[in-house]
Structure prediction request, 118 residues.
Amino acid sequence: MAVKSSYMQLLQYVTAALLVVLVSWHLALRLPWLHGVESFVHTLMPEVVYREITSFSLLLLLLAYTALIHGVNGLRIILLEVHHGELWDKAVNAAAVLALLVFGALATYTVVGVEPPA
Prediction:
């Protein structure tokens, strides 16, 4: 069953609004005084990043998945507007699903598979 384009556009708007909130939260975590360090560069030290990943892994995954869905759906919409045809539509939709699966697995591995610093 095909999904109506209005639902896909609504998904684009919802993910955009959610990204505004999640990216703001993510950038706020880079404030040095939250981590007891003196500068922004020190918030990127392995100890600080690992502590953030272990504490906020679900929110980081939500950020990654939301950005991924927003980006892939946006590219999908652009490609569907460039060319028309049943075969093209099926190919673009299949490529979008494949991209979501591959990059979603990579995002999950990046957040969940992080080893603590030695």
Observations:
- Residues 86-112 form the longest helix (27 residues).
- The chain has a mean pLDDT of 88.
